[in-house]
Design goal:
This protein has 331 residues and is mostly helical. The chain contains 13 helices and 5 strands. The relative contact order is 0.10.
């Protein structure tokens, strides 16, 4: 079987445009494209901004990555992100793969700390947040969604009859999680408003939403269908940076992040609570309610159960109700 020929960017383009061309050919997410471009630019500017990366070698890459760890004190995940961007540049854009192992100073892995809210704190929190942001926060806490999973939900992902949410999560994997009955009436009303907004867009000659290329080829015409519209659309249409089409994208995640931060402050909760804290609180409460850890792993979309096990360390364990194996024996 012959190997597929490797894509080569247009040599007439500027370097960063070549990077974008290769990333779009391989269908990288736009957010990933932005991140890689930023890291590659930082790498170039680290050496004065005038030396082309093809004239830099492994030792130079090691210097840059080591500086991130030692001088900048970035996290291990941030340093790994920078490394991935540089490897992509040399392997896929410059066609000059890095030889051998990169011996850079590694950023220290910081111990993971999980912040959870008590039931009383959750109740106080929800009294201090309202509108669409409150609805989104209820999905984070009631269904265990990640921030961007919530922001990117589409109308078709909600199954009111089965009380399920289909989630397109990390690693481009689908999973199913629960939809809490108390949130259904509010979510149904919200969905009707979204449908009306989409109908108005269609009337004005718009109404097309972004769909990944692989899906757009499979479901032709889906971009204009109501089912594929974002559940939390932005107030205004905008120009897609890649296709240049005018579309209605999903809301920015920063709006919910700010609303959650403000609600935490108003509620007098003295913890470093964020959107992800609501997901942590969902997981911990489910364990306290007796949900099997393997089931919880599926609901959260964890590839490894060890990630789920971290919640066992923060759950409220009432050992007074446990029965010793010695009890009931005729001794």
């Amino acid at each position: 079987m012959e190997n597929k020929p490797k894509f080569t960017p247009n040599p007439k383009l500027k370097l960063m445009d070549q990077v974008r061309e290769v990333m779009r050919y391989h269908h990288y997410a736009y957010r990933t494209e932005q991140t890689y471009v930023q890291w590659i630019l930082r790498f170039i500017h680290f050496f004065g901004g005038k030396t082309h990366p093809r004239d830099l070698g492994t030792k130079d890459i090691e210097r840059f990555l080591s500086d991130l760890a030692v001088a900048r004190e970035v996290s291990a995940s941030t340093q790994r992100q920078a490394l991935n961007a540089i490897v992509f540049l040399y392997r896929d854009v410059l066609n000059k793969p890095i030889d051998g192992k990169i011996a850079h100073a590694r950023a220290k892995k910081k111990p993971k700390t999980v912040t959870v809210l008590s039931k009383d704190e959750v109740a106080r929190f929800f009294r201090c947040i309202d509108g669409t942001h409150a609805l989104m926060a209820k999905l984070l806490y009631g269904s265990g969604l990640r921030l961007m999973e919530c922001v990117r939900l589409r109308i078709k992902d909600i199954d009111f009859d089965r009380k399920r949410i289909q989630v397109f999560g990390k690693g481009d994997k689908w999973r199913s999680t629960i939809l809490a009955p108390p949130v259904i009436p509010q979510l149904q009303a919200h969905m009707e408003r979204v449908k009306a907004l989409h109908h108005a867009d269609l009337e004005e000659g718009f109404g097309e939403v972004y769909i990944p290329p692989s899906l757009s080829r499979k479901y032709r015409g889906a971009a204009r269908e109501t089912a594929w519209q974002y559940l939390f659309p932005s107030k205004n249409r905008s120009i897609d940076p890649r296709s240049k089409k005018e579309r209605r994208h999903h809301v920015l995640e920063s709006g919910l992040q700010k609303a959650v931060k403000l609600a935490v402050k108003k509620a007098g909760i003295n913890k470093q609570a964020t959107c992800h804290t609501l997901r942590h609180s969902f997981a911990t409460t489910m364990l306290e309610n007796g949900v099997n850890i393997r089931v919880l792993q599926e609901l959260l979309g964890h590839a490894d159960v060890k990630t789920t096990e971290m919640y066992t360390h923060v759950m409220d364990k009432d050992i007074s109700r446990l029965t010793s194996p010695l009890e009931g024996l005729a001794l």
